[in-house]
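Quick one, tokens below. Sequence please?
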């Protein structure tokens, strides 16, 4: 069934992402610059397609269950996770990673870990959606993993949408057009506190 196929891939991708991030934590703490660079390259290549279908299909489909305000929060936190991943990619391009850069990179990785653990539970809510909605999410998942968009391309597209003044509510409305109502109602989830935004990457480390 599509819901089982989606859930299996979704959670497996989260496990892989978890292990990559934990490996990066170890590399940063060991001051192993080579492992840091390799780990970031692997993590960003893995994360971009996953981020794409979460943003374009999964979150908007959940608006009928959780409400628009919760989905807006998901999208805002998603943007912060994208930014943290992009800054890690930029950090890896520095010629030399000094102690300050390694500490900063470690902080960025720890900002990404909650995205993995918190989002994994959303698969349970996908189960209560109508078959047409589940099929739409599953299709987006398969297409994203086939196209393998890069993190830079995905982030560029997201920023371009923001530059045109596209509201988060309009993103939800556009992506949930073909989504039918869920099988059963659920109470809106409580609002969580805002996550701290990622800082700008420090350049020119010696």
């Amino acid at each position: 069934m599509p819901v089982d196929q989606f859930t299996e891939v979704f959670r497996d991708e989260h496990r892989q992402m978890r292990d990559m991030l934990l490996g990066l934590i170890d590399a940063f703490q060991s001051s192993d610059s080579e492992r840091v660079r390799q780990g970031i390259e692997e993590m960003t290549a893995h994360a971009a397609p996953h981020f794409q279908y979460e943003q374009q299909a999964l979150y908007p489909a959940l608006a009928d269950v959780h409400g628009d305000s919760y989905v807006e929060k998901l999208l805002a936190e998603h943007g912060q996770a994208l930014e943290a991943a992009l800054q890690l990619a930029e950090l890896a391009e520095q010629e030399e990673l000094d102690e300050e850069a390694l500490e900063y990179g470690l902080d960025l990785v720890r900002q990404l870990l909650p995205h993995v653990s918190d989002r994994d539970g959303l698969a349970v809510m996908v189960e209560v959606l109508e078959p047409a909605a589940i099929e739409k999410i599953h299709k987006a998942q398969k297409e994203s993993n086939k196209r393998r968009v890069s993190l830079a391309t995905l982030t560029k597209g997201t920023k371009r949408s923001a530059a045109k003044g596209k509201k988060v509510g309009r993103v939800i409305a556009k992506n949930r057009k073909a989504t039918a109502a869920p099988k059963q109602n659920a109470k809106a989830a409580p609002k969580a506190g805002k996550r701290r935004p990622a800082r700008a990457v420090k350049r020119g480390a010696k």
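Residues 160-172, 178-206 have pLDDT under 50 and may be disordered. The CA atoms of residues 72 and 206 lie 40 Å apart.
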